[in-house]
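Example 394, ligand RFL.
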Amino acid sequence: MANTRDVAVGVVGGGPAGLLLSYLLNLQGVETLVLEARSRAHVEQRVRAGVCEHPTVELLRGIGVGARMDAQGMMHHGFSLRFDGRDHRIPLTELTGKCTTVYGQQEVVKDLVHAHEEKGLPIEFEVADVALHDLDSERPRITYTDAGGVRRELRCLAVAGCDGAHGVSRATLAATRPRVYTHDYPYAWLAVLARTPPVHGELIYANHERGFVLHSIRSHEVTQLYLQIDPREEVTDWPDDRVWEECRLRLTAEGFGLREGPLLEKSIAPMRSVVVEPMQYGRLFLAGDAAHIVPPTGAKGMNLAVADVRRLAYALRRLVRHSDPRPVTRYSESCLERVWQVQHFSALMTGLLHRDPAADDFARKLQLARLHNLTTSRAAATSLAEHYVGLPFD
Ligand code: RFL
Ligand code: PHB
């Protein structure tokens, strides 16, 4: 086919996983091409994650893409669990010596796109019809239509599937019948971005009889709120007045007053857990949301994507530069322990904080007892804090 080119690693998806993998590989002398379905403006503005864990921050800083994060990100040394109408602080830094950094995912994406641009590394935006071929050979191929409508073929040594939960990579791997573990939670999140200064300097995770609410921070002027809702509800069921009323009720605490402001965005995020095992087939390797989904309560999805691609970059370098296939053979196995640790932590946070519509009064009392234990036992709080700031790599 005309319009064919060769590259060591074809990276499908230009979210945090694909961009970071591509950058790490190029730093190690492995050539890549990133294929992204959406436009540059779209990926740079897509608001999602807010919390970067300690190992993520160290990695970004270590590869020289952390300057804006260091200047604009907000270091958080603790967060509050709010229940029984008052705050119970988890002092992250006191318990672990580490902190988290609140810095939007779209800012991480902007920094990585910019870093590619500076080094002249290629990203093709607005590609379509991506298809993966010959994955069980040593020369897999990717075919796609570029932004100008031209059909192209990419011949590579490996394909990195970083195109999220609904991309072509997971769907292609699904045809090889991997084991897929899933769990759907009986609630969803209404995500609300409000132009109003956050009224508390740290995140508040509130457990309330009416349901969970998270008070998070985007900047000195912008507050991010997440409300537990019924998964059958739609954004139109939540006019602004209802959002503020519900936030006020669920965040009630002495001396705490919410300041209302214009709502800039509203969207609904489902609450789901998924793990695909193994995360690879032949020369296709899944990373990030393509391989697994965690409910957002633990603030872990992007951070887990970072942990995957760090391992994948190492394994692909060994394959491409040293013709050593052993690390890629073990890639999935080497990721899954952390994946399940993070699933465990995300499910724990989710179960502790949400109102399960099927739970009886006994279950509700147990939930409160667990929260009390976490906030009164130093050992229990330390374990929670260690997971929250991020388990060390390796
Ligand atoms: P992404 O970000 O979905 O990127 C995949 C990219 O692939 C593109 N794509 C394709 N490209 C080419 N061909 C195709 N056929 C394609 N199909 C799709 C897409 O356009 C996209 O650009 O996956 P990635 O890179 O694995 O990153 C994962 C994270 O985005 C995700 O886990 C986090 O946003 C999860 N998450 C959080 N993670 C954290 O670490 N900390 C947080 O505080 C946090 N908060 C959150 C969250 C996710 C949330 N939602 C929306 C579920 C809060 C929320 C509300
Ligand atoms: C966010 O600010 O987007 C955020 C913060 C903490 C979470 C999830 C999301 O647990």
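Summary: Residues 291 and 327 are 18 Å apart (CA to CA).
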